[in-house]
Structure prediction request, 64 residues.
Amino acid sequence: MGVNLIFRIAAVGILVSVLCQILKHSGREEQAFLTSLAGLLLVLFWMVPYIYQLFETMKELFAL
Prediction:
């Protein structure tokens, strides 16, 4: 996991929080919720390969 991924996650977090605040102040609560959910899913899809690699490493470590 490189620093590039951490910066991308931080950028998505900042962008989603700004969009959510704008949408909440304009009275669009549902769209703000969907925006935050979309940001969460995007970051999770980025993290899935690393989580898979972690579990594979743990499986190899404890395999006897």
